[in-house]
Amino acid sequence: MSWDLAFISEQDFAEHVRLTIQQYGDKLAAFDLHKFNSNIVDPIKLIFDKTVYHYTWEEIIKNEIFRQRDKSNNNDIGYFHQRFFQYVAGCVVPLVGWDVIFTNEKGILLPDGDKVKTVFVEMKNKHNTMNSASSGKTYIKMQGQLLSDDDCACFLVETIAKRSQNITWSVSVDGTRQKHRRIRRVSMDEFYKLVTGQDDAFYQMCMLLPSVVERVVAEATPEALPQDTVIDELKQIADNENNSFILALYMLGFGSYNGFRRE
Asked: In whole angstroms, what is the distance from residue 81 CA to residue 67 CA?
């Protein structure tokens, strides 16, 4: 595979993907029946979903396991987006404070013609993940940075923005609409463009990402990958008790209910 990214080496990219996968932590642990039902699944919902969407039992159980794992995976992907920039020239990723700090001694040109030496970044996954209180708090933090450093700008960088953009960020703080030309709302592709000098840098990274993830996962030891046993355990319960698979599933949620309870 040829390597076309000038702003990060193939080795660094693969290592970053490996470290991101490590962030999944115990979510990579295999699901047995106890873990699967730790928050008590809704058997009736599973039956409706299976029938309406024409899934097999194996597919519906896998989907439920995926849903449980996925609830906390956004933070892990946030790690990928933020920590990626530690490999990009001019960027640092502090342990506390800002998510990314980008510095260019020759100057960073902003869309309105301003030129600054440093950009301080707060990074969010989606455009709609901040409520008004969170937005106001972040904006005040950026205002404070501008007051202490007149050669900087502050960006709210969104991985999934409504559109590609690098615009003045306007928010309501204590009931008053606030905006400053050096406090900006920036989509991820525009931030990649700014720090790498390559217009389609984010696109190029996205195009290479699937093959790198596949390679890193393929190189992992079998013990590192989850081997879920939920469906096998449910089948075993059904066979041992001479019951149907559906009854075994019902017992997960209704095992103590009248009619289901074994005396």
From this structure: 22
Q: Residue 119 — left, alpha, or beta (φ > 0 → left; ψ -120 to 50 → alpha)?
A: beta
In the beta sheet, which residues pair with residue 156? 122, 185
Q: Which of the two residues, 22 and 71, has the higher pLDDT score?
A: 22
Does the pTM of the predicted model rise above 0.90? no
Q: Are 81 and 91 in contact (CB under 8 A)?
A: no
Q: What is the pLDDT of residues 245-254, one digit of tens each?
A: 888 889 888 8
Task: Identify the residue whose tokens are 């990723």.
Answer: 93
- Helix extents (H) in the chain: 10-23, 33-36, 43-52, 57-70, 73-83, 132-148, 188-196, 201-219, 230-240, 245-254
Amino acid symbol at 175: G
Mean pLDDT (the chain) is 90
**Tokens 């896998």, residue?**
62
Cβ–Cβ < 8 Å for 115, 109? yes
**Dist. CA 117–CA 113, nearest whole Å:** 13
Q: For the chain, what is the radius of gyration of the CA atoms?
A: 24
pLDDT for residue 186: 97
Neighbour count for residue 64 (Cβ, 10 Å):
18
H helix or E strand, kind and range, residue 108: strand 100-109
What does each C-alpha distance from 47 to 12, 171, 247, 249 come to in angstroms?
45, 45, 11, 9
Q: What sign results for the dihedral spanned by CA atoms 125, 130, 135, 141? A: negative
State the pLDDT at residue 222: 64
pLDDT tens per residue across span 67-85:
888 876 667 788 999 999 9
